[in-house]
Amino acid sequence: MTPEPPNRGGAESEPDGALSDVLADRRAKLERLRAAGIEPFPPTFADAETVAAVRAAHADLSPGEETTAVHRVAGRISARRGQGKMAFFDLADRSGKLQLQARVNELGAERMAVLTGLDLGDLIGVEGTAFCSRSGELSLRVSDFQLNAKSLRPPPDKHHGLTDVETRYRRRELDLIANERAREIFITRARMIAAIRRYLDEHGFIEVETPILQPLYGGGMGRPFITHHNALGRDLYLRIATELYLKRLIVGGLERVYEIGKQFRNEGVDTTHNPEFTTIEYYEANADYLAVAARFEALVAHVAAAVGYTGPHDFSAPWRRETFAGAIAARTGIVLTDHPDRASLAAAMRGIGIEPKPTDSWPQLADELLSKRVEPTLIEPTLLLDYPLELSPLAKRHRSEPGLVERFEAYVDGMEIANAFSELNDPDDQRARFLEQERYKAEGDEEAQPHDEAFVVALEHGMPPTGGIGIGIDRLAMVFSGADSIREVVLFPAMRD
Rounded distance, CA 73 to CA 138, Å? Predict the structure, then answer.
């Protein structure tokens, strides 16, 4: 066997001499397999079990114990030991690893030579009998095998794994091959989404799909991506939120709806932001933000149990609660009601060492106070309630606190994971709020909500009292997996050239 140099998954467009030799050797093996009548890329390997299922079936085997149980498994060769009359392989699938024992008296000399001539990274399917080695390792004694796909490039070095962060994100397939932790994160994410769907379906919500290409973006604060539709001869926007379309469905009588899908915001990239991200939004007729809070807490606790969360947080209800203004006052000494205009609030911020941008509006300044001085302190699960009216153009006015709206945001690990309202259903008030947002936009706020008259017209047909919420799927996956960057939980995150 030709020794293979360590490969940590870096760029291979210009391979060095050693890697070039390995690639040539693998190509030569491919041709020898074909010449021997072996198909290196067959169409199927039927009836394969997962490694985890095989392990579960024999969890009670004692060291040295044999069975007559025959199993078929398929995966990638991740390690090999031995040569000649007996060899051992580690076969890995997404559920785990399993040791294979190959013996010449089982396979015959010719088939044994084919198996031991395979490379690390090759994909195989095997059939064999389960036994437990003397050292206590569950194994399959191979009675037959099939090459499922010849790997023409070496896998990342098994001892070092794939550690270069840039390569891990750009070449996620290599990351998943090399790093069990990466596979665990994305399996957790998938289970999380399935649990969310199951909970909502069981509570009378229906899943819907609304447009991703929209004639007017809305439902959130953010700059959109713009594209052009040739046949229609018009610009369209990639949606920044699903909110306005989902509330139109409430108007139409669907009463409980949700959508899981991609949103797009033309913003910077950091540990909690990716320009393409996934959310779930759900809306419930005849509910307010307090009812939404109770359901949200129950949902998160349900999901935590479903994914087997064992981290530091207790997600059982009720979560900690603070008010928006109270949290800012407690941490900065700034009482927002004492600073109702932009100039006054900006001066107060300078007094605590924050230099505001001259173009920022009052809502942007209040939001900056929140993001810089409050959010980093909200580590345990917390609901922040009752936001200023100016920050919430789609939320219903507070029933008892003038100048506020019925809104909460949910925080964990210093990071916002959800945003919820008692939804504004007064069409005249909504139209006035849109006009106020237009003023902020004219003053330089690029993220202000545009005026969506079609949505206002829909409200004029009557929307019942409604509670709604948007939850960041990527950030929730960070919480449940323990990841410290959104790029760890997005399979192919946005990257610079």
Answer: 14
Query: Does CATH number 2.60.120.620 belong to domain 17-155?
Result: no
- pLDDT tier at 84 (50, 70, 90 boundaries)? confident
Three-class secondary structure of residue 463 per DSSP: coil
- Architecture of the domain whose range is 180-319+381-488: 2-Layer Sandwich (3.30)
Q: 253 forms bridges with which residues in the sheet?
A: none
Q: Which of 308, 307, 210 shows the shortest CA–CA distance to 260?
A: 210
Please report, for the chain, the start and end positions of each structural domain, with discontinuous segments joined by +. 17-155, 180-319+381-488
pLDDT tens by residue, 243-265: 999 999 999 999 999 999 999 99
Write the pLDDT tens digit of every residue in 337-371: 999 999 999 999 999 999 999 989 899 999 999 99
Tokens of 129: 């009998």
- Reduce the DSSP state of residue 143 to 3 states and report it: strand
> What DSSP character marks residue 172?
H
User: Which stretch of DSSP H or E encloses residue 23?
Assistant: helix 17-35
CA distances (Å), origin 478, targets 53, 192, 472: 28, 11, 10
* Core vs surface per residue 141-169: b (16+ CB within 10 A) or e: bbeebbbbebbeebbbbeeebbebeebbb
Tokens encoding 307: 């994914």
How many angstroms separate the CA atoms of 126 and 144, rounded? 6
Average pLDDT, the chain: 94
Tokens encoding 117:
């001539």
Kindly state the average pLDDT of the residues 278-295. 98
Q: What is the DSSP letter of 445?
A: -
